[in-house]
Protein: Superfamily II DNA and RNA helicase
Amino acid sequence: MSEDTTHSRPARRRRPSGRPAAGSRTGAGTSRRGGKNDRNAPTDRSGNGVEQALTAAGTPGPPPVEHFSELALPAPVLAELTRQGVTVPFPIQAATLPSSIAGRDVLGRGRTGSGKTLAFGLAVLARIAEQRAEPGRPLAMILVPTRELAQQVTDALTPYARAVRLRLATVVGGMSIGRQAAALRGGAEVVVATPGRLRDLIERGDCRLDQVAVTVLDEADQMADMGFLPQVTALLRQVAPGGQRLLFSATLDRNVDTLVRRFLSDPVVHAVDPSAGAVTAMEHHVLHVAEDDKNQTVVRIAAREGRVLLFVDSKRGADRLAKRLLAQGVRAAALHGGKSQPQRTRVLDQFKDGQVSVLVATNVAARGIHIDTLDLVVNVDPPADHKDYLHRGGRTARAGASGSVVTLVLPEQRREMDRLTARAGISARTTAVRSSDAALAEITGAREPSGIPVTITPPAAAAPPAPASARARNGARRGRTGSGAAATSLRANGRSGNGGSGTAGAARSAGRPAATRSRRRAA
Structure:
């Protein structure tokens, strides 16, 4: 279903009378291909030029609000915000929510950790509150680039969705597609998805997007960088004509500009921090290190008191560094795309609850991972470009907190690092250090490790599914021995798998031998 992104989009049609009210648009402009959005003026390659062009061509929206109570949010959502202790919106929320709740298309740019999830999430819930989705036909779609970000969005929105009795379905790769299909068939008003897995479910006939009235693209720049534009384009073509589009990103570049010009109608553009994405609550340090001393420098930084997130270039490099740190007495674990989704989730849980103090990660952790009170991120290997730098650094100094980003730079990397920081719009303090220097300890809290090897119990690997033929044979045998009663009992208990409906999950659980169920519970 991948399609070339240069294919022209069909002209918008007037919404049929039976469509959800959320799709109606207040202040919408002309067609997505014409009028104010048909802007062919050249833009430069920097985020500045793209943002200036989009802002100049857009239509102003309502002024920002100072309190959530000023917004047309459902009363249960306002009550839940109060219960959660969230009363004053962050700048990106204050700026975009008046426009998005009113039905306008919105292009919002705010740095990582600035509160974008609630900025679009509350608008989605307000727009479709009190509506019910048909089986397999969600009313709102939130597209994200990574599994971790999908789970973060779901976790953040669940209490507010529950307050207005809206159901969320999380659809990502690496997890049971059957359970996700069951969740959609059970009726989910909001689907939070990565593009590839949602495409798979549509091709299976488990989901249709023709009732989607509100679409969100979160971290749009990363979706473009990861090559998701053809999949995103194909999905957007399937949603209800005339629906609302909300696009949020930490950076704006020409790839994002392509999406905006193509799919947003007369958007309100809001940018709440400097266009390069520099973070004022964050300190930036570039440490010049010698090649023969780099490994020891990393070990001493990792041995600091408190948690630290270390970024490296490769899966193998992450595994090797984690193993080296464990041998030195540092409680470390690796996180990368070579691990299954359940393993990645458990590693993150270990890091969040303190079982692991050092997370060695590839760029899989650069977006969509929210870790409270993380005050140090270290680029053991410098990032490939300024956007990767900003998103790696965005794991610290979140929600107004402070933090530090440290990048270790070898002599041959210095010139490229200078270009990267200039492109990112940051001013970094540069220091030449050795692993034993007091300056390293002052900047990072580095100290000598204990040297006593430690062991971290690795997350259990997910058991591979049984072949279809074996499942069929087992099912036939269980059918002859009366497993139907067990299935009925489990259905009554409402047990369900991760992301699946209670009935579907119970039926699958009942269909497994007792020994298998016991092993799963033990795991």
Summary: The chain has two domains: 21-271, 282-444. Residues 21-271 form a domain with the Rossmann fold fold (CATH 3.40.50.300). The CA atoms of residues 80 and 86 lie 9 Å apart. DSSP finds 20 helices and 14 strands in the chain.
